[in-house]
Amino acid sequence: MTRQHHSDLHALTAAYALHALDPVERDEFAAHLTHCEDCRREVSGFEATAARLAASVGRTPPEALKRRRTLAAVEGVRRLPPRVRAVGPTAGLTRSVRRKAVPLALAASLAAAVSFAGLAAWQHRQNEDARQQARQAQERLEAVSGVLAAPDARTVHGRATNGAVTAVVSSGRQNRAVFTTTGLPVPAEGHTYQLWLDHEGTMPPAGFIHADGTVLLDGDPADATGVGLTLEPAGGSVRPTTRPLLLLALPA
Hints:
The chain is α+β, with helices and mostly antiparallel strands. The chain contains 5 helices and 8 strands.
């Protein structure tokens, strides 16, 4: 990256948080941070978002799914009694007990085997779901990081009517944009925050944001003139149904 003029330093918050600056730029921006509260707050938000996205890639399986616990349960199944030579009148009783014990132990073993097989199949499905979620989280992380660190990334800042501090970072080369916010109040029950791309008055949906963080905007930002944020019923709307909390103009 080339050395930035002082007026451009505010646009380096994302690249600084992702360690994408060269040593000279990083030192210059670090010095800038000592007297710029807005940049310190934005860097903190980007770093927290990157950490949350990275953490979402890993997932620890529940204790009940661990193989050794299942095997330990199988070990607890009662086994057949030992074979001993009976003497006198107890022989008949011993044979009777053995005849009854065989089907009971067999049934218990079969039940344990069926339970283990069912648990293994369920565990496989859970693992597949976890792997798919991890892949999706990794893809989101890479997409967001790619926009934030893009050489042509441009940032605009705004404040929503509910007090949230927001920014949109866009990359013309990648034809992508991300939306980030801090201080976003928890929405009322049954509602969610929805994002929109403004195409000369037409507002197609651009995704959701449920708490402080950064999300990749859905849709094509190439011809968009702005980004909107509204509070919508849970599940979202096909078009805005409430007064915008934010209408942030995108750079031309």
